[in-house]
Structure formats: C-alpha cells, structure tokens
Write a structure and sequence with these properties.
With about 200 residues, this protein is α/β, with parallel strands linked by helices. The protein contains 3 helices and 24 strands. The strands form 3 sheets. Strands 23-22-19-16-13-10-7-4-1-24 form a 10-stranded mixed β-sheet, covered by helices on one side. β22 and β23 form a beta hairpin. The longest helix has 12 residues. The protein is globular and about 50 Å long. The model has no long low-confidence stretch (mean pLDDT about 95). This is Gamma carbonic anhydrase family protein. InterPro entries: Transf_Hexapept/Carb_Anhydrase, Trimer_LpxA-like_sf.
C-alpha cells in the first residue's frame, strides 16, 4: 500500500519489489533491486526514509524517518523480520538480524552486524565492522557494547543521551512524576498529521 503524507508520496524503483501488504507512507524512496516484504512499514514522519540499492526489508519490520533524523539504509543492507529502526543512518552491507532495534540519531558503520534482538541506542555510533551480540546493547559515542543485564552500566551512558529531550523535546521529570502525560499529548498530536493521508 502506498500512501501520500503531507503532500509527499513514496517512490519505488522499477526493479524493486514491494509486497502487496507492505505499507509505504510519505517521503519513502525504495532504490534499485530492493525488496520490501510482507507487513513491513516504512513511514516518513516528517523526515524521509531511503532504502539503498539492493537492500532487503523483511517481514513486519518498521522503518521510521523523523523530522530531526531521516532514516537512510545504504547498499546491500538486510533488515531482519520484526526489526524496528527510527531516525538512524545505516551504512553499506550491514546485517540487522531479527528483532534488532536501532534508535534516533544512531549511526551504524559499514559491514557491521546487530544480531538477534540486539539494540543500538539513541545517538550511538557503531564503527565499521562492529558486532552487537545476540540481545546485547550498544550505547554511546564512543560506543560501549554491554550485556542486557548490566543495567547500571547501560544507564550510566544512556541517561546523558537524554531520550525524552532528544526525541520528544521534553525535560525528564522529577522523581515520582510521570513523563507520559506530556509525551502522549505531544506525540499524539504529531501522529495526528496522518489524518489527511490518502492511499495512492
């Protein structure tokens, strides 16, 4: 399904294949020889999504470009089933295994691997030829690659990356206060821009 969003429509190179149950919304550009499989969602939420030549987006993956951070895949990238990428830059020949997560402002270097359920956190830079093991977390710049049960070490880097401020423009609330009322109001308002989308 191709959908126009905020006056911009997806473009798909004639040699690419987009499955009939995939959804491309807004300024999404699918390059030569690409494959976008069943249930995948590529949505430009104020910033473009670009899929480079020969790249593959597997079933039920989500790729989201943001106003602050467009999403770009280089050439010959594989995005595994159920992976979630938002506002990140992925260089050439990268393997993102099933269930991988790559967050806003992250950059993944050429020939890197993020293995099953691996995470590349907000504003993290993963150099070329890096590997994130199954279920591990890459965080920071310079990057630290940590096991998921080492929450203290992950948080010691992650806290200063300021997820609510960077992604939503919100201050982290004082202890005991919830971020969710302000976050859901702001994010909900932004997502409401889809109210005028039209299927092509």
């Amino acid at each position: 399904m191709l959908i126009t969003h905020e006056g911009l429509s997806p473009t798909v190179h004639p040699t690419a294949y987009v499955a009939p149950t995939a959804t491309l919304c807004g300024d999404v550009r699918v390059g030569p020889g690409c494959r976008v499989l069943f249930g995948a969602v590529l949505t430009a939420e104020g910033g473009p999504v670009e899929v480079g030549e020969g790249s593959i987006v597997m079933e039920n993956a989500v790729l989201r470009g943001t106003r602050r951070d467009p999403l770009a895949l280089g050439r010959k990238v594989l995005v595994g089933p159920t992976s979630y990428l938002t506002g990140c830059q992925v260089e050439n020949e990268v393997f993102l295994a099933t269930g991988s997560r790559v967050f806003n402002g992250a950059r993944i270097g050429t020939r890197s691997e993020v293995r099953i359920n691996g995470i590349v956190h907000l504003r993290t830079v993963l150099p070329a030829d890096s590997m994130v093991p199954i279920g591990w977390v890459a965080v920071g710049d310079p990057v630290r690659i940590l096991p998921p049960d080492d929450h203290a070490a992950i948080w010691s880097v992650q806290k200063d990356l300021d997820f609510p401020g960077y992604v939503f423009g919100l201050d982290r609330p004082a202890d005991g206060e919830s971020l969710m009322p302000a976050l859901s109001e702001r994010f909900g308002r932004a997502l409401g821009r889809h109210g005028n989308d039209q299927e092509i």
